[in-house]
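To: structure desk
From: M.T.
Subject: fold request, one chain
Message: Could you run this one when you get a chance? Sequence is below, nothing fancy, just the single chain.
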Amino acid sequence: MIDLGTTRIKGVMGRRNDSGVISVIASGSIDSGNSIRRGVIYNIEQAGAKVHKLVRMLENSSDRKIGRVYVSLSGQSLHTMEFNEMRRLPAGMVTEEVVTQLRSVAEKYQPDMKRNYQVADVEYYIDDKPERSPVGVTGSQIEAGFELIVGRPNLMNNIEKSISTKTELEIAGYVVGPTATAAIALTDEEKELGCAFLDFGAGTTTLSVYKEGILRRMVVIPFGGRSITKDICALNFTENDAEQLKIKFGKAIETHEGPIFSSPFSSKPDVDLAELNKVIVMRLDELIANIREQISLSGYEGQLGAGAIITGGASLLKNLDLYLGQKLKMAVRKATARKAMVNNAPELTGDPSFTLALGMLLTAADDCERDEVDMTEAASDEEESSSSVWPWRSKSEKEKKVKKEKVKKEKAEKTEGGFFTKMEDMFGNIFSEDDE
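Reply: Done. Structure tokens follow.
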């Protein structure tokens, strides 16, 4: 799983058992430099090199080979939109086929100037009455209200260019970040009571409003932890020093500490803590005003019984939960990946910056490990051609294929003087060449 974060790219390798519980095999992160801006790849070459290095780190620490990766999909253009579809019920009852047809229509729907990336949730009405489990219910018509996650149509282009063409990896699939994070951080009770789920990243802050178990609104606000860091730079600090000051001394709510603190950096000016926190709070107030407005637009203001739940790397700012509680006038809980969903790696389940990467493991369906098969010298040419076509075969399948092809080759050499075998090798090598 590769989480393309604005400041750090994170990777997690793991497996999921039949009960849906995750076991982490390896994890790591690497500074993204300037390759990603607000969750979207900006520098293709640099991002590809970073991902390649991170994958090698995971392979070395796990002694496994990675052939494919799932990649997070994010960006400030992502948001929810409603889509409704209706069906008459000539049989007088909702069948599984009707429900499947409704979802298929929603998945295929493409809005103007946007792309449909995921069907996030659905709410059914039978003869205008809400019904959570419609199959088998009698009625004359059914209506499905879908919440789609849509965004700019080219969000995946730079990801494909940087990963598929700049590394040897295949993209197994894309995971919409906000829904993956919510899946592993929120409880069913919180979604049912209603909550404002806030994922504070470096480049963006994502708000997801849940009520009655359904995602009602999701929007990405283009302010994050890096916005605060850049504001601190105005106090005559480099970006690196400003980030360290924010982490070590920054607070959303000021305390009664002395106004001046000796700089922890050699040959740097002393830190005015009151001024530092004033800068932080000014940016927070702007962000919170946006959050409050989006909650109001959702139509569920005052109905969120579970309050606000916060996660993400930027949520580590001291006293952020207290300040949000005061401003939003609701209870605030800090969240990470639920420990019941991950049976090891407590250092990751306790780190809010890894919530998305762990959540992505819940949605993965395909095996991403690459098998390394020791080939004999006689069969290496034949396997080179076949493995380029079938790279995900199991070891036994590959060995059978090599043995079969070797027998066929020897037979052909006896009867045809090796002519067809030579032609097969020549064309096999042509088609196994990497083609960008």
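Reply (cont.): The chain has four domains: 1-77+155-186+337-370, 79-151, 192-334, 378-431. Let me know if you need anything else for the meeting.
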